[in-house]
Design goal:
There is one protein chain. This protein has 251 residues and is mainly alpha-helical. The protein folds into three domains: 11-90, no CATH class; 111-201, no CATH class; 214-251. The protein has nine helices and two strands. The protein has helices at residues 2-5, 13-29, 34-46, 68-110, 117-129, 138-147, 151-168, 187-201, 228-249, and strands at 179-180, 183-184. Strands 1-2 form a two-stranded antiparallel ribbon. Strand 1 and strand 2 (183-184) form a beta hairpin. The longest helix has 43 residues, at 68-110. The model has no long low-confidence stretch (mean pLDDT 79).
Length: 251
């Protein structure tokens, strides 16, 4: 083992430096797109645009080592795609702002300034279930997926609809994961998860508000008479739910 490790790096600084470069770009420029931040970090780390002050070609970046025709082609390609890239970045930023405004409006509308983030999130998904963003049948899912152009929007819509059932309506058996064995699930897999949730939730009553998750006594088999101490624990848990909801709605 020792011989096999001789000459190898003992730390992961090489990998971490790329993350540090991306982090620095985001911290300094704030609104920069994550892909652009990663590209700049990659360019700086590899010296793609470095100019050699001497005749030593090994100190010249990869870009300046290209033929002039290829350099011009790369620049013209970047100029051609720049407007579309900038528009995509602006659209993503506006979508983020819009989601933030919607959350603030719901919080203000329901008087939830004192509520926990998790409770607010559940209420938002519950309200989304009553909007046109909710897909309640397989047909609506199919039509909704066709109406969305980009993969990221389709993925987010599927995730939101799954969360509407799990967090918004409080159906605990409708939980779904976004990955499996370390790999992101495909759109088809997420769509199947949503169809499975439709099957589970079929015929269930839609709650008027999301269920609050508070610590409760573990439900176990009862042998003999149910003691008053267990009843007291259950009663206090229910009072705690009402108290949290009341405090959340007080301004």
């Amino acid at each position: 083992m020792k011989e096999a490790l001789l000459g190898l790096m003992a730390v992961n600084d090489l990998a971490e430096s790329s993350f540090a470069g991306v982090t620095a770009q985001v911290q300094v420029f704030g609104r920069i797109d994550l892909a652009s931040a990663a590209a700049i970090s990659n360019i700086n780390r590899n010296g793609f645009l470095d100019r050699s002050p001497t005749d030593d070609d090994t100190a010249t970046g990869m870009f300046h080592g290209l033929r002039e025709e290829l350099q011009l082609t790369a620049v013209m390609c970047a100029m051609e795609f720049a407007p579309a890239t900038r528009q995509a970045n602006n659209d993503a930023l506006e979508a983020q702002r819009r989601a933030k405004r919607q959350k603030e409006e719901i919080v203000k509308q329901l008087g939830l300034e004192k509520a926990t983030d998790e409770h607010i999130e559940c209420l938002i998904y519950h309200k989304m279930y009553e909007s046109d963003r909710c897909w309640k049948t397989r047909g609506e899912v199919t039509e909704g997926m066709k109406a969305l152009r980009y993969k990221k929007d389709k993925e987010q819509a599927l995730k939101d609809n799954i969360q509407m059932q799990f967090k918004g309506l409080g159906y605990e058996d409708c939980h779904a994961t976004w990955s499996k064995n370390g790999k992101k699930k495909t759109l088809h897999a997420l769509q199947l998860e949503l169809f499975n949730i439709f099957h589970k939730a079929e015929g269930r009553e839609v709650p008027t508000r999301p269920l609050l998750k508070v610590p409760k006594r573990k439900q176990t088999a009862v042998l003999g008479t149910f003691c008053k101490f267990a009843e007291e624990i259950d009663r206090k848990a229910e009072e705690h739910v009402d108290s949290i909801d009341k405090d959340a709605r007080e301004k």
